[in-house]
Amino acid sequence: MFKILKSSWALFTGYFILMVAHGFQGNLLGVRSVIEEFNFIATGSIMSGYFVGYFIGANSIPNLVSRVGHIRVFAALASMASLSILIHAVFVNPIIWTMARFITGFALVGIFIVMESWLNDRANNRTRGQLLSVYMFITLIGISLGSLLLNFSSPDKYEPFILISLLLSFALIPILLTKRKAPKFKKQGFINIKGLFKTSPLATVSMFCTGLIHSALFSLGAVYAAKMNFTIFEISLLLFIITVCGGLFQWPIGYFSDKSDRRLIIIICTFVAAVFAFLAIYVSGASLENMYLAISADRNKILFFLFFGIYAGMAIPLFTLNLAYVNDYMEKAKFVSAGAGMQIIFGLGAMMGPFLCSTLMSAFGTNGFFIYLLIFHLIIGLFGLYRITRREAVENPDNTFTPLPRNITPAGLELDPDADVDLSSK
Known about the structure:
It is globular and about 50 Å long. The chain is mainly α. It has one domain: Growth Hormone, Chain: A.
């Protein structure tokens, strides 16, 4: 394992810098949107632009890589990502920002695909699980530190945008200077949505709703906090807590999901998340008639941060729980293709999430953010209770819960040690 890490330091270093920039960028734009007084609908459209680009890129870039090659595609996409953030600084306009976010999403998913293909090329059946753990850890730390960079400079200045562009460009250096040849790209197959729904209705519905939830949480969380008049430090701390709790809770939740009916864990997680979404509204002093943050005591603010952290800890693992649950009904040879299909379902929800959430925020006030989250958690939980009455629980000894970063692509799913992938020849 040490030899692989030593030979892959350039990939991991570049990826870490990329994650820091990624974690900084989305939150910076959310806060800046509030400063520029963009309305909720405009802000939601901007944030949805990223996920539209991400979805389209995930389904088109593999063909581009096959024709052009890893190195050229990686360099071109990294340059696009670096350029797109500068567009935000120069042209402060919701329409232009939406197009720029589309470019960012398209570019970043291509970079992830290339990165994960390289990692697969350097892994074998004994080490891919360890590589996936390192990949997960670097993703978590990078995005968390990126959130704290909100304190670097005032979001209404141009310096933060230049820093992000510098980080994205700097991330290129160690990766492009790597000595090892780029791997041959293998196009990923996937199981279609109809087939996945037939295999597991709960996993399919839950994954779609999870896409709606996660995209709104990570793109509009900073907008919510800024609208609540939190300081920049408080916003960065809140986003840091969300990311860290969402990552760390995966391990205990995954352990219990392997020891019991995974449907129950999905239902418990989503109902607990709904409860803490409600508690976040309650402790903020909001009401249906007047939804605004009215925190006057430090104790209430601490409770708000605590409730939001627990909410994230319950909500974020749903992505991996859904993947693990659908694989309970799959043979090992289909784990990766099923995961690819599930990510398409997740992407369909993610594209709509920020726009729908912003619509509720526009209609009901700022805490429409939590009402939106609560609604879709209740849909998952109630549908899960219904499905328990329709089918007995199953056990698949070939499948266990493996913590995964939320930005993982089908290429990265091959690092899952449970997947039936032949890497022995590498």
